[in-house]
Amino acid sequence: VLKAHTGDAVCENFLKLVLEKSAFIISNSAAWGHSVDPNSGELAAFASYAHAFPDGFLALVDTYNVMKSGLPNFVAVVLALRDLGYHAVGVRLDSGDLAYLSKACRQYFRDVSKHVKDLEWLAATNIVASNDINEETLYSLQNQGHEINTFGVGTHLVTCQAQPALGCVFKLVALNDEPRIKLSEDVEKVNLPGSKDAFRLYGKDGAPLIDLLSNTDEPPPTVSTPGEIISLQMIVSCKGRCFPSHTYGTYFWETCVWSAR
User: Fold this and answer.
1) SS3 252
2) Which of 16, 107, 114, 188 has the greatest number of C-beta atoms within 10 Å?
3) Inter-residue contact 140 to 146 (CB < 8 Å)
């Protein structure tokens, strides 16, 4: 249930209204020159956010795919809010090529505003960008002719680059013992699913060699004989693709430094 902005009407099922708007977006996108594949979980999250903050709906649209999912889901919620007299704040980009994506977002908003009645304001809606923005990034974006209205600067505003901060992000890896994975257009932001234990492996001289992650349902690394040679296979990444590299043997004993059990 969501009251209209004026308070003189009530929407009994806001999610149903959002789904109707999403169906409208999907059925008309091809005619507008866009290919879409909205993620239903993202749409549900947007609807919940908008229901809680109808006057402050600013959607993070790069969780799955900006153009195919984030923007059409955003506009579906925008249309639902519009019917109730609310005005969405805009979208936020937090990964990827910010200059390119901002221009693509702006063009998408212009295209939609041309075909949907009473939505002319969408062409100029707010586009917010974040993701470790610094002066060099700002100069680069300016040279690329970005379409960003607002910059979210945090880390580089309060820390010195000569002594940078350690950026840490918590991501969901399991829910009710079921593995979960975060999907992203940025491969480095895709997490390894499943709860894990972390082991620090040491050489025979006592120096740490490598940190090993294993799922909690896997047996921990063990050494049955002192000085036993264990073969470790390194994984390297090249242009977003992960593949096995070389293997090597080493002497080690292990210590569990952190457990999700």
Assistant:
1) coil
2) 107
3) no
pTM, 2 dp? 0.76
Amino acid at 75: V
> Could you give the C-alpha distances from 210 to 61, 64, 231, 250, in angstroms and in order?
36, 32, 13, 10
Beta carbons of 112 and 91 less than 8 angstroms apart: no
C-alpha pair distances (Å), 123 with each of 69, 92, 188: 18, 15, 32
Encode burial over 202-235: b for 16+ CB neighbours within 10 A, e otherwise: beeeeeeeeebeeeeeeeebeeeeeeeeeeeeee
Which of 152, 257, 247 lies closest to 198, judged by CA?
257
Cβ(73)–Cβ(41) under 8 Å?
no
Say what the pLDDT of residue 253 is. 47
pLDDT digits over 36-93, tens only?
A: 999 999 999 999 999 999 999 999 999 889 999 999 999 999 999 999 999 999 999 9
Sheet holding 196-202, edge to edge: 208-215, 196-202, 253-259
Q: Is a pLDDT exceeding 80 seen at residue 226?
A: no
